[in-house]
């Protein structure tokens, strides 16, 4: 427990500097892009020179970049993300409305890809070189090469348009007035296609990593020792080979969290899921820089939290990690 707390304390200190770099870097990149929220507003609604000057003053766009950056960092110290130009509401409230949907989508897709991918990897790696090993390896390679948006469109055409088994998009039935378990079931049905489209891509990655890890573990001395003790093949696979091959997957789980979050932007757009990804798309279209900054900052915090949890889990699974961190 002490090793895990020491590791967590070190990671939190480093994460603070990472967030600062993310905020400053993102702010400067967005400021370097042509146009701003006023330009997007005038293009969509029209307006004269007086209105343009009024909007720039109201939204603080008439100040220098350094002044706006300093004001934004000072507001962040007070946990204030500012006002959204598009929604005319506090950005924190807008993000908190969309965040649960993205977390549900990412969590479900991660559970699907990690659980099923590692299980299939164990099934394939239990008999290296067999027909099932080659079949799953080739199938996972083909699945990993498929773009997420294309897979999502194919799933919509087959299961929503042709077969009409599942809804075509959204997170729940509009104006359904469902509550309790009925609403949960409705949300679950709507999530089947987007979760499958997002999870199957990373399922292939976990399958191939587990299979490769088991192929390496079969050649280790501890497997020969287990065989010499007369242990059954099933026990050797589950208790020794798969257990050692699982550690790299835990590391990959943290590394893939950022890609999973990026993939959710595409999937939410394809399936019209009202999450952070679709909100980011709306913010980009409206040149709502404060809202986009808040979304990117929230995404960075999510990725950091996931990696912190993975580091703590790894310290428990492999005591050598926590011991090396404590001694550093």
UniProtKB/TrEMBL annotation:
Protein's UniProt keywords contain Cell membrane: yes
Keywords from the UniProt entry: Cell membrane, Membrane, Transmembrane, Transmembrane helix, Transport
GO biological process, one term: transmembrane transport
Residue intervals of the ABC transmembrane type-1 domain: 99-314
Transmembrane segments: 12-30, 103-123, 135-161, 187-207, 291-317
Principal location listed in the UniProt entry: membrane
PROSITE patterns linked to this entry: ABC_TM1
Domain of life: Bacteria
Keyword Transmembrane part of the UniProt annotation: yes
Topology class, membrane: Multi-pass membrane protein
Gene Ontology CC terms: plasma membrane
Subcellular location: Cell membrane
Pfam families: BPD_transp_1, BPD_transp_1_N
Protein family according to the UniProt entry: Belongs to the binding-protein-dependent transport system permease family.
Protein name as catalogued: ABC transporter permease
